[in-house]
Amino acid sequence: MKILLISQYFWPEEFRINELAAMMAERGHQITVLTGIPNYPGGRYFPGYGCLRQKKQRYKGIDIVRVPLISRGKGGYIRLALNYFSFALSGCLLGPIKCRDGYDAVFVYEPSPITVGLPAIVMKRFKSAPILFWVQDLWPESLVATGSVHSNVILKLVDALVRFIYARCDRILVQSRSFVDAIARLGVESSKIEYFPNSAEAIFDNARGSLTEIPDVQFPEGFRIMFAGNIGAAQDFETILKTAELLREREDIHFIIVGDGRMLPWVREQLHIRGLARTVHLLGRHPLDSMPAFYARADVMLVTLRKDPIFALTIPAKVQSYLACSRPIVAALDGEGARVVDESGAGLVCPAEDPQSLAKTILRVYNMKREEREEMALRGRAYFENNFKSDILLHRLNKWLVELTGKV
User: Fold this and answer.
1) What are phi and psi of 381, to 5 degrees?
2) In order of start, what are the domains of the chain with their CATH numbers?
C-alpha cells in the first residue's frame, strides 16, 4: 500500500515512529513521511536544515517531505505553541502541494501536539484516504497535568479541537488500554478505538550483553540506578532528587541520568544546592544507537511520573525499552504503567511522588542477590516478546489497514 505518514517529528530526530516506518517499508509498503524541520530536543534546527532548506530525503526506503515550522527554542509555552501551530499550518497549506501522489491511507503519529491531526484531515479530503491516528498523549488532559495551560477558555478550545480531529479519524490507535475510555468519553465510537502499544527499537534486543566502550563517559563504581530519557516536568525529578537525599549515606548507590530536556538546568542547579553531585550523575544526551551500552552498565532501570490521573493512564515508552533490554526495573508509577511492570515480573513498583517508598524500593532491589535481579530481567524480556514485539504489532496494524482500504 501507499501510506502517507504524518508526524511533526521524524529522523534525524529520535522517535519510535522512525523504526515503525522503516519496518513498514521493509514489508513492502510505500511510505512517504510529511514532517517538519528537525529541531527536537535542542530547540534549534539541526545542522544542514532550515526554513529555506526543505530538501526531499530518503531514509531506509522512505520518502521524507519537510515543511517549515518555527523551532521550539528553549521550550517556553509561547514558543512551543508557535512550534505546534506553525507545523499544523504549513502542513495544511503545503502538504497537498508537496505530497501529490495518491495514498491508500494516512497514518498519524501523535506524541503531542494534537494539532498534527489537522494536516491529516486536509490530506484526507484531497486523497480520499482513511486516517489512522496513533495517540501517545491525551489532550487536553496532558496540558493540565504538566501545568502548561491553566486557562479554562483555552482548555475548552483544545477540547473542541480534539473532538473535531477524532471525529474525522477512521481508526484511533492508543498506546495504553486505559486511553480507550478517555477517548470514548469524547464521543468516539468504541469500535473505532484499538489498542496499539509501543514496541522498542531492535537495537535493544542484545542490550544485555552490550558492553562496548562509550567514549568520554565515566561511570561511577557501585550500584547504578539509571534513568534514561526526557528530563521534563512529567518525569517528576523532584521525587528522584528527594530519594537521592534519603539515600545520601549509601555512597555506593548512584543515580545515573542519561538524557536531556526542559528541566535539565533546574536539576543541575539542584544537585549543587542539595549537595548530591557525588551520587547523582548527569551524563547528557547520547545517540540512540549507544543506549544499549548504557543500559548494560545499569544494575536497575528507573522510570518515574508525576502523580496525576492522566499519567496513571499511560505507559511511558521507556518501559518497553527497559523490558526489551533485559534489565530489572524500579517504577515509581501509578495505574497502567505500574500494572505492566508488576504483571511482567520485571521489577518492583511503588506509588508516584513518594520519595520514602521509592527509597525503600531501591533498597529492596539493592539488597537482592544478583541472580534474583537477573531473573526479573529475563521475565521482563519474555513479557516484551509476548506483548510488545514489533512483529506482533505490525501484524495488527496491517490487519487494520486491510480492513479500512480493502487492499492487501
Assistant:
1) -65, -40
2) 2-199+389-405 (3.40.50.2000), 204-387 (3.40.50.2000)
